[in-house]
Design goal:
The complex is a heterodimer of chains A (444) and B (233). Chain A is mainly alpha-helical and 444 residues long. Chain A contains 17 helices and 5 strands. Chain A has 2 domains: 4-316, no CATH class; 331-437, Cytochrome c-like domain (Cytochrome Bc1 Complex, Chain D, domain 2, Orthogonal Bundle). In chain A, the strands form 2 sheets. Chain A has a 3-stranded antiparallel sheet with strand order 1-2-3, with no helix packed on it. In chain A, strands 4-5 form a two-stranded antiparallel sheet. Classes of the chains: A mainly alpha (444), B mainly alpha (233).
Amino acid sequence: MENTDRLRQRTLRGLPTFGRPLAAALRFACIGLGVIVMSVGARSADSNPPMQPLHAVDSPMTRGEYLARAGDCVACHSNPGGIPFAGGFAIPTPFGTLYSPNITPDRATGIGSWSAAQFYEMLHTGRSPGGTLLYPAMPFPAYTKVTRDDSNALFSYLQSLRPVSQVNRQNELRFPYDNRSLLYGWRALYFTEGTFVPQPGRSREFNRGAYLVQGLGHCASCHSTINALGGSAADSAFAGGLIPLQDWYAPSLTDDVESGLGSWSVDDIAALLKGGVSMRGAVYGPMAEVTHDSLQYLSIDDAKAMSVYLKSLLQLKPIASKQSDVTAPSAAVIERGQTVYASRCAECHRTDGRGMPSAYPPLAGNASIQMDVSVNPLRMVLNGGYPPQTAENARPYGMPPFAQVLSDEEIAAVVTYIRVSWGNHGSVVTPREANAMRLAPLLD
Amino acid sequence: MTLWKLIILSLCLYESGHTAESMVAPDTIAARARGCSTCHGTQGQGTADLNFPRIAGKPAGYLTHQLLNFRDGRRSYPPMNYLLAYLHDDYLEELAEYFAAQPIEAVQPVQTGRAIDPAVKVGTEGAVLARHGDPTRGIPACTQCHGSRLNGLEPAIPGLIGLSSRYIAAQLVSWRVGTRHANAPDCMAVIAARLTDTQIRQVSGWLAAQAPEPMAAAPAGSWKTPIACGSEP
């Protein structure tokens, strides 16, 4: 059942370009192939309560549709204004432009002639029927964790869609990246076939969260450090990184100084993921799309399970604080920043930086604006933003853009001010850095 | 003594203002619409920046169409496209209705003369185009659709007063180059394609120079438009 009403809500911002799709390459210990482990990960349809999405949906989502939401398939496999799942979405990468394929059940141009086994093989190994190696814009390094059972449900859902005859568009990759045999090398470096293995001794909730985060959620696609080959090394999984071509920084999920999730409650994290806002902060940039197109459709139980697992990452991989050699801002910069703050920001975020959550997020103690990489707070001030409209946040409050009313010096001063005030421990931002973000792409 | 009283009063006001900061955002559409304020003004009355239009008092149907067009990419302006990407029809309509309901009296720009780009010379050619069109090029008069007083027509034809020449010219050019679309049949795209560069300068300059007549758009059906427009019901 395709839900064009909801899907129509997707707009210009398709997927955050290459970051999410390409980045992945999760490395977790894997066990023998073909073993279906999944009393934990794969919930039966019964235990997944019917979703209540925002827009009028007459029937409950099927399990396959639910899983398609969890995997956010529609984000890449649809063109804005086009037919959902018919592909054709341009994914710009540092190596050229990829176009997502048609995954409707049209026999000639889609995946109508595939079998469930071939579909699983594709998710699990990154090979399409016939052996063609997929570019890792398809997050098979994460989807390899998806159980056969869930793969079957996903496949059934996709096969239930209306077939759309739309020929796949040729990729436009530069030499030598247009040679798929290079992917053998990439795969050797960055891809490990795997099956999700629940951690013994951990709760069912923890393992469910791990399964979603590592697998369909493909969180590591953005929240990992991506190298020049578009891969991420094993030890950089969830370590955070700049998303290529987007100028947004996906914070580390393992370093509590960056993510700050250590002090968040599970309920606040779940509220953020599913609703887009919380008492601690709101989603913005590419994460707004993830909540809008994918996470808002998850059950609150699944959102909490993901939150439990995300909090555990901080304990599993403690990384020393990246904060170092922080240069104190000059008194003049602080004074200027404070002036701008008082006239432009304090009305909503309050003089004490505590904000009026969840409408206006707190800035005091907000890890997101203190990271070493300052692109996110700079872009928030330059571009403003409305969190995604969700069932939990049906009438979002928004922040206006300031790019057109503040100079580079003012932007840098006010961002510096919020990064060092109220106990925050961020570093100084320069007007040059502020200026550079004026060129950041607003649309994918 | 008076000075001291003033100082003490100021301190009290400052202190009360200081401590009166709420922890809870007002549960109003106005508070939610603050995302629009730096460009369009808190009530949509426009700002000192010539590039951004006033939106107060424009017909709600027109504003809704524009919000949907921005969200769905039919109208291209990346800062707007970005802000609206994840908002839905119902909420965009609510925002449109809020700005449509703002008093048009709040529209100040033209009264202060700011809407006229100093570089624009306001000549009679613009007046002729606006009032009579250019039959030789198949261009109808602005007034035929937007009204003899250019105040627009409910529910979806905007008024043309209180806008800068720069903004109006930019819209006509956007239609010509394909970065602004309206629902088909896109009548303004047809008209914009027929206008010469000179005519765009003339008509936008003249429109921006018109004295504001604070008034709402005319009731629906007040006159019949001469050309089919997809945005019209």
